[in-house]
Fold each of these.
Amino acid sequence: MSLLEVEDIQTYYGNIQALKGISLTVEEGEIVTLIGSNGAGKSTTLRSISGLTPARRGSIRFAGQDITERPPQDIVGLGIAQSPEGRHCFPRMTVRENLDLGAFLRNDKDEIEADMERVFDLFPRLKEREKQKAGTMSGGEQQMLAIGRALMGRPKLLLLDEPSMGIAPILVERIYETIVEINEQGTTILLVEQNANYALEVSRRGYVLETGKVVIEDASDALRVNPDVQAAYLGGAA
């Protein structure tokens, strides 16, 4: 049984259909990526899984439970956390306060403190800026904070939405190294990324989305040498 099973979901914004029957699976321990151009439906897929933009049709199962119509806070409680596109850190709160918010559904104080230390181990820069207001940090530092905040919920499945967007290349590499480390520590990851080179390098499998549909599904290594993927997303060559 897959950890996550998304079957034929159709999601709308008002009368506009954003997802036109997306199906995908994520096995426990994998990094799976969704790639595609702007407006392909990648972020909407994550928002449907996390309950923020519920699907009107189709089904989403997580760890054997149907979560299609569950509210977002229930889905977080079951073990899915999202680091959203655009980061959405709370600018007037400190780094530590933002991280504390990621654990708002938990009451196991010792374990929360252990996870805080884990986040600081993964992102030493956050430890250095523990008392700094999030709004005064660089985009890359805020991205680290958004991922760290999601990890504070101790998720079984981490949804990452465009972690490289608007970040200096040197920090993108650091963030991707950390994504691999998080996965190696036991967290399954579903990754949305416009930078297909990075995404296919760290993931095991990938889905290519176009206008709300899955058009290609394959192992990441195969997608990297697929001529259509190369032409559309990899600058013509892997």
Amino acid sequence: MKVAIGLSGGVDSAVAAHLLLEDGHEVTGIIMRLKPGDSSSDDIADAKAVAKHLGIELKVLDLRDEFREKIVLPFCGEYANGRTPNPCIECNALIKFGAMLNYALESGCDRIATGHYAGITADNGLYQLNKTDSPKDQSYFLYRLNQFQLSHIVFPIDSMTKQDTRRIAAQAGIPVAVKKDSLEICFVPDNNYHGFLSSMGITSEPGNIIGTNGEILGKHNGITGFTVGQRKGLGAYGKPMFVTSINATDNTVTIGEEGSQYSCGLTADRPSFISGSIPSEPFRAKVKIRYRAIEQPCLITPFENGFRVDFDEPQRSVSPGQSAVIYDGNTVIGGGRIIKQIN
């Protein structure tokens, strides 16, 4: 089978390529140029070193304009509207398994592979996205994938641990075997969100920090510097205080005492379900409200262009802009963008 492997310059995708070759596939590497100027050059150099070591062709796919339009600008817009976005989810759906998948298929490949830790199974012609036992499981970031995309994707390292991946890389002599993981958003230099947003022309005016009853407690320097659940950087109030909501319309940041950061539920828009059909009736499942969270049991009630989640137990720091991802056991059902907490 002809498989295009998305090489990022990191160890995960390098090992995925190595495993594909061991399985006898015809493999071609693709690295995406996403960031402005030459800021991708180090990763491209590493990907070239991996491709050379493995003896495969590497193609550089320039997607900078599309990445800026579909990922970077909406990311900035979300912050300007008081939400905390997760651009990796959009990038997976629109860029990695959108533009790069299309390019691979047009180039004559049968499948595309990446170094994601997730699983795909098929049952009676319906593809499922599955959570794996790996501590690095990344199924949360992939809930927007559709049936066509899943039918053309391979995840060679699906349930492996990071230690397994690095061990295989070292044994195979792969050049990036000890390269550190990138933990930040790839297009935000030095993880400096405020500086990046300012460079993109996104600035916010000073405004009021208010209490849960609307009383003015202090001043802030701009809503883009805050996220729901935040504790640090709020000032001294004689007791721990937490951000409970951000209102872009009146430029306020609401804070409250311990306990006020919990929500009984949420509403979400932009629903995306793996099966391709949105459920019509309420159903029980589990929902994860951020990547590092644990899935929580709840009742999910679909409505036009979204769904409501009522948790069995209140959840901490439900953040508009993040994704609510729905699980049935280890199977990802779908998800949506959180737009409002329910208190």
